Structures are given as structure tokens and as C-alpha cells.
Fold:
Amino acid sequence: MKNNFRFFGLALLGFSLMFSSCKKDEETPVVESSNPSTVSLTTQNNVETDVWVYYSFDSKSEVAGIDSSNFNTSDAWDIAFHSRHVRLNGGTSGVGVAAAYDAGVVDFDSVTEASETGYTEDSFIEDALYAGNGAMGPIYVSTNMSSVFENAFTFDSNTHPPTYSANNNVYVIKTRSGKYAKIMIKDYYNDTGDSGYITFKYTINKDGGRTF
Structure:
């Protein structure tokens, strides 16, 4: 008889522990964020004044077939680069809801949550500097872009052509579909020293939450 009571007592204890564990799991949802990805774009972005290189966080690849005639009606891209400038799929630049803010010069891993507010959408910016490669030197063109990223690079205009250096700031982006990502632009040059090949690092919250 004592053995029976002992058996039922152990069974009840096991059930209680299992119930407690399940309840704890329910109270602690898993945040699905991607591991940091480092991307080195393979298309040069500073040869022509109207050539941008478009990238999708969903497909994790450059997006072909996007140009000045359709970039603001396409939902296939999230972020684009031309020279030292950045364009996001939102505001005047696209049909998405993309916007961004500058978190400053901080450790990439220290940015663990996206803010609810403080994002700036793209706008039409006048007198934007484009680094021309021709003999005429720099070319000024007005276009749609993100003002938030205008300090992403510092450049030395005393060299010919100008020398660009990434500032290593961390930027938080609301993507075209409303998800949250953090990004750090790392380089303006490829492994052979050619300019206009952007390298950046990013993490995106896949489930739409603000936690990284």
C-alpha cells in the first residue's frame, strides 16, 4: 500500500514539474532573429550618376531589373546604394514603409532592441553629391534618398578620386514590410581596392518584433 502511495506521489510530482515547465515556455516566447550577415555587393555603384545597387533582406541578394524607371513602384527591394548614398523602400523612394534612425558609434551587439519611434523616411534631397569618375569631377544631382545615412561615410576630397571611409555607425531600419533590422556599413572598396563596392553587416528580426 505504501508503494502505491509512493508511486502516485512521484507521478503527481512529475506532472507538476512538466506543467510548470510548459507554463514557463509559454511565458517566454522565442525571438527569431537571424545571425549577423556580412554582405559584399558585387555590382559597382559609382560609375553612372543614376545607377543604384538594390538589395533585398528577404532573398539575401542583390535585386536585378530595378532602375530609375521603377524603383519607387517595386516591392522587391529594401535598401539600395549609390556612391556613398543610401536609399530605402519607403517615403518618396518606394511603396514600402522603410525608414531608419542612426544609433551612433556603438558596438553592433549592444543594439539589442529597435526603438518604437524616431524613424525618418526617404525624401527628395536637392544638391546631393555623387562622386563622378569623369574628368569633370563631382556631379550634383537631386534625387530620392535617406538623409539618415548621409554621414555613413567620411570622404577626403583632397585626393583624386576622393577617398571614402565608413564611419561604423549602427543604423536601425524598419524594412519595406515593417520588420526591424540593424545595419553597419563596413567598407566602400572591394578586396582589390576598387571603389563603389559596398560591404555591410546586418541582423533582422524575422518575426517582426523589435528585439535583436
Summary: Helices lie at 2-27. The chain has two domains: 1-29, 31-204. The chain has one helix and 13 strands.
